[in-house]
Give the backbone structure.
Amino acid sequence: QVQVVESGGGLVQAGGSLRLSCAASGRTLSVNAMAWFRQAPGKDRDFVASILRYSGITDYADSVKGRFTISRDNAKNTVSVFLQMNSVKPDDTAVYYCAVRTTGGDFGSWGQGTQVTVSS
């Protein structure tokens, strides 16, 4: 199993920046991709960004392109992924979740989420 823990959420003013962190531990040898999702109150959970563990290839939702940057730090037994959020908007307010994908599987390991609130 893979354990996932997010950190770094908080309150930020519109136009400001915030950096989220995520650490995956446990059976991480099989992890091949990491991603961030978010869920605003009353809405479905949406994809934000993803990164392939070894190639570093990234993908972003249109709503965050040019403002958010996903990156990762590989280690033997842990994998860390980060989300640098710049020029944030009130619409970015949500609970942000980190998820990891293992070989042959889907994004099946999730963190508990971290709240991001953007004030106008």
In short: Residues 48 and 63 are 8 Å apart (CA to CA).
